[in-house]
Amino acid sequence: MWLTDGRVLDIRTGEIGGPVSIEARDGVITAITADGPPAGTDPAEVIDLRGDVVTPGFVTVHTHLTIVHPLAAADESEDRAGMAFRAATRAADALQAGATTVRCIHEMGGMDLAIRQSAAKRDIRIPRVMAGGRAVSHADGHGKGQDCSYAEDPDQFYAAAKAELEAGADQVKIFITGGIARAEEDPQYQEMTDDEIAAVVRAAQEHGKYVVAHAGGSTAIRAAVRLGVRSFEHGYEMDEQTVREMAAADVYYSPTLGVTHNLEYKQHKGFGNASVEKATRMAELHLASAKRAAAAGVTFTNGTDFPPGDVLHGRSQVVNEMILLQLAGLSPLQALQASTVNGARLCRIEDTVGSVGVGMAADLLAVPGDPTTDLTVFDAMTTVVAAGALVRTTR
């Protein structure tokens, strides 16, 4: 495949180059040249981008492909075939939205592990999946009723994490605080003891993997940072000391701002009034925490929590979250970096994913404008290529 007349964005510097042609073979970028395709190239293998800007595909790191919304509608006894179908459908939608890599951090039935295997066999066409299997939770914790792997003491948490890792998980998800999806939960309340957190971190490190934490408040986050948790989600209420410690430890933060700032979507998905009202109350605190994190130099990533390919008013959730990151003080380029190269680095795949260059995975998006000044150009995305295969184009 050749993409011609494209202008490549250097994701690290923000510089946009002149017109080039990009060759992709066997899923990898094999050439970026001003000369164009060689004579005799099959025209069916050439897409003229007409001057579009080419960026890396999105890497979105807080994905749920099986969770039912609202959470109260979840059924842990649901037939596994239904879970698998829902996961595959949402994954395909994410790919259409430009999310060429998704990190799943809790799927009912461990369905991310299953669809990852199907994708490797080319049975289905979905993004690259960094699978987490089932999250590990206290039975009465934030993961209640969501088909998590349940544990009640350090030994059980270690064993549960080890089981997910041995099943093939790329990372382990835990819930260290309550959340805001249910009216009765407190996002500041620490649900796991330090010993339980440490046990999961130990299991992950023994397998060369890392831990990601659902985390609402400062006290629990500081404890988890010190215990070796590498990736934090939400951060609804974080003080200055907390974000400084996060920055010093070089951890990653996915604020999932859509959870508190995309209330129309939540209503559309059937979340109850109490849940929506709680999110409304938390919105100001949540954004203030994200602003503190940005000012402290914490590394941001893009995580939607909602299915990234879901579309409302013509905008996917992965693009919506990227645009919302600007509210925290990120520039358009920084928000795009959070949605690409930062996520790749968190997932430890930055050598092949997250930027555009020869030898990198041919995960490419094309947009009709400059995304370093206006991220809404992704609403008009013209082309999506994943692993060197055309997903869609209007060119």
From TrEMBL:
Q: Do the record's keywords include Hydrolase? A: yes
- The protein's superkingdom reads Bacteria
Keywords associated with the record: Hydrolase
PANTHER family listed in its UniProt record: ALPHA-D-RIBOSE 1-METHYLPHOSPHONATE 5-TRIPHOSPHATE DIPHOSPHATASE
Q: What is this protein called?
A: Amidohydrolase family protein
In terms of Pfam families, this protein maps to: Amidohydro_1
Please give the Gene Ontology molecular function terms for this protein.
hydrolase activity, acting on carbon-nitrogen (but not peptide) bonds
